[in-house]
Amino acid sequence: MTKLLEVMDLKTHFHTGSGVVPSVDGVSFDIKKGEKIAIVGESGSGKSVTSLSIMGLVGSPGRIEDGKLAFEGKDLTKLSKKEMRKLRGNEIAMIFQEPLTSLNPLFTVGNQISESIKLHQKVTSKVAKQKSIEMLEKVGIPRPDKIFSSYPHSLSGGMRQRVMIAMALSCNPKLLIADEPTTALDVTIQAQILELMKDLNEELETSILLITHDLGVVAEMVDTVMVMYAGQIVEHTDVYTLFREPKHPYTKGLMDSTPKVHMLDEELVSIEGTVPNPLSMPKGCRFHPRCQFAMDKCVSEQPELMELNDNHKVRCWLHEEKEVNLHDLVKS
Amino acid sequence: MSSAQVNVAAENGEIINKEAKPFLKWARLLLKSKTGTVGFLIVFLIVLVSLTAKWIAPHDPAAINPANMLLPPFWMDGGTAAHLLGTDNLGRDILSRIIYGSQVSLMVGVTSVILAGIIGVFIGLISGFYGGIIDNILMRLVDSFLAIPNILFALVILTIFGPSVITLIVVLGVTNWVSYARLVRGEVLSIKEREFVKAARSIGVKNNKIILRHLLPNVISSFIVISTLSVATTIILEASLSFLGLGIQPPTVSWGGILSDGRDYLATSWWLATFPGVTITITVLGIIFLGDWLRDVLDPHSQGRS
Amino acid sequence: MVKYFIRRVLQTIPVLLIISFIIFSLVFVAGDPVALMLPEDASFEDVENLREALGLDRPFLVQYGSYVVNLLQGDFGESFRFNQSALPIVLDRLPATIELAVAAMLVAIVISIPLGIWSATKRNSSLDLLATGGAVIGKAMPNFWLGIMLILLFSVTLGWFPVSGRGTMLHLVLPAITLGTGIAAEMTRLIRSSMIDILNQDYVRTAKSKGIHDFFVVYKHAFRNSLIPVVTITALQTSTVVGGALITETVFSWPGLGQLLIQAVNTRDMAVVQACVFVIAILVILMNLFADLLYRLLDPRIKYN
Fold first, then answer.
1. CA distance A131 to chain C (A)
2. Does A232 reside within a domain?
3. What CA–CA distance (Å, rounded) separates C54 from C31?
4. Which residues of C touch A164 (CB under 8 A)?
5. Residue range(s) defining the domain that contains residue A15
6. Chain C nearest-CA residue for A151
7. Does position C105 have pLDDT exceeding 70, yes or no?
8. pLDDT confidence of B284, banded at 50, 70, 90?
């Protein structure tokens, strides 16, 4: 598969009154055509800022300090505002966490979908309307011509997210960024929306970058997973490997704190401590104050993202000499 | 404090605040806001001036001196240092008149706002307590007052009862109570809905007792903010009425009155109408700054909204 | 929707009744108009006869009742200064006041909308500081003083505009600016804070993510939303605006309601004063209804039951 987007050493910092916040601090990954990839992390880990950086929507006081965002060979950080606008909503589209507030309350659903289509495909209102209704149908909205002329407030949360997806996919984007698309929805609706995204991924070959804090969603949706902590990727591998054998203590912590159906009798363990204050990041490994395996080295030196094999990278000193199985480490 | 200490204090703000005396805490909060500090200084200065008018005014504000009629301010040709801001058509010293004028403006502003607060809180309490038909009637009363411009209502009452300082205070108080009534009523209604009140009522505790106990802490900050900003609008309203000749009557000096006198001499002596207006503007500006700062400090929900 | 407005109109009836009651009580307390109407040497019997003829010897509530009945017929009593019914006198002056208020509103809109939007989109820029600073000074300046200063500068010193009166467009400029500045100050603050709030909303981010030009993001997606609170709060201030108009008229000798009212107040022409109060109150209530309508047109989320 060819690379659609290559993120290289991305650094997005926020210049606040009390100091510089390195929200994204040297993130690298790539997304192949048709691939589904997820960034997992707690709030404040920098996962949303990463996606906004790709969209070119990091608002003041934030700024992309360094790094490259190569989208089909073009560096997004070097594009003019106008070129970026042409790409946005057209080749790269995004859906957001809150379908409730992400649609403009004062315009009809149809107005908001056909707005994109008219803008990027330069078609008449009539064609745009037709296309919008088609899209609404495609995302499984009943009576799409009626929904076309209704206002967002009259729709349910799940329907609104379907509208958002229809809007995002209306111009056949190559990449869809979904920032916590199901967090605000009921569990049953969640599953439906995820299923819809998976189907559309197959049908339209749209690559998907999923941003989430929910490992359950990850397991259901994607091929590849990156775990982010304090602005950095700490583990990067395919979804099966990650669940079978997490190598970073943080990843393991996340898994232990996620309820699983087949583990009814096991206790849920939460990770102790909190995400570090971005204004005063801990020296050494950023996770060490919360890590049950922390060693002397972890306090003094920051680990690099180490390649264990072709498809598994981890940022942890435990695996410096040889790979360690964390499950065994706990037992011993 | 050296700058290094200030930095430490800023970093450990939380700890320091707990230890510091309330006065220091407020002073620190005030100094953080530029407009708040400016507002406080202006208000402080005006209050000081009005309290010490007797001693700091260079002349008797009522002293008529035909020899010094319509003198310009000191920096212009013909101005003298004896009359820094010039004199009026009767040779009275403008600066002294402005200094004395602050007394009546502040006094009327503050007392009428207190009166408005008392009326408003009382009506708001009754409206919220009893609800139903009483609430309905009182809220229509509120609507009625909102439909009549303050200045119009004041004019009508002043026409009927004749202008005097007392009438003016009462009038301004009676026209300004609406915002307090709405605040208190809203708070009473929301307290009534809370679970613990319902629970207490179910075991026979009187509503009134609970509401009064919980009302004060919830309305006190909004009350202070509304009052501060009301003083500003009241000072303007009083000046307007005095300007129209229905507010403060001579020989009592008021800013609106000086302005009104000066209007007839606009073509020849601009300073008569200019300086009192500048004084009113600066005073009101100071009060608004102080009020906005108080709102930001006392009511964190509204922070950044202004 | 029609039902809703019928209910809103019906709600104004008790408000007008309360206003009439307040006014009547005030006039009642003010004392006997008879003393003013008869020569000073009139006998006690003459006074009593006149009181009886005017119905002033009846109980308070009965008098109030007939007062309301008269009001309903548009009868506010006779103006003794003009020797004619008060209401036509007042209505005659109404167009001038409306002309001034509309012109001032236009001035306010032209100033405050671009200024409010610019300062919200370019927060903490020098333009923002200028706009917010200007707005707070505009709020702190007494209306009548601003008028006087404008006369001093543009009429007395520069001679560009007439000092007072009504007639040509030139006459309208200074009064409209005087009254408009105060409204603009408040509206600029409101639009700015409302826009700042709206620009942080998720749907604005959605609009940006669709590749829409910043200009349309601001003017199509954000501005209409930001108008909703602006309309509501501006409507609540109608009465302040009308109050400002009364004073502005006095400063510029603008022959509207304000000037009439001040003259009536100075001559204690109570019939005219009362008619003014009612006409102004109805004006304010109508403006509020209009704002309510506008608000409902702007926001499809509002339901009518």
1. 16
2. no
3. 14
4. 206
5. 3-222
6. C300
7. yes
8. very high
